Amino acid sequence: MSHFKMENILHLDGSAGLVVGILLLLLNDWVSHLYSLSTSMILFLATMNACYGVYALSLAFSKNRQIRLITLLILANIIWAALCCTLVVYYMQTASMIGLVFISLEGIFVTFLAYFEWRNKGLLSTQNNT
């Protein structure tokens, strides 16, 4: 993948997190009912997505992307994917099917992001050795 295209993955990553976070915040009650999860759980998901999105976008727009900061982003994706799996198992009996599917898809999405970002972290970095 070219350097230009790989930079776009950071924009996609950050935009996805921020948009999901904002939508969950704005539609908190509706999503809580739709997913059959508590409002506090939806607020947790919203906050984590929004914070992650801001961090990823700050990297995307940064002129100085260090490998260690990209690695931190990748680690956050891996942790979030594991948390999504944990939430699906924990809420299997109480959450709605649509809630479980959306959380599962988010986990799959961030796993793919982590994979592509890891494989291309050198291209994503603007520094050679950090």
Automatic annotation (TrEMBL):
Annotated keywords: Membrane, Transmembrane, Transmembrane helix
Transmembrane regions: 9-27, 33-57, 69-91, 97-116
Record bears the keyword Membrane: yes
Protein name according to UniProt: Uncharacterized protein
Taxonomic lineage: Bacteria, Pseudomonadati, Pseudomonadota, Gammaproteobacteria, Alteromonadales
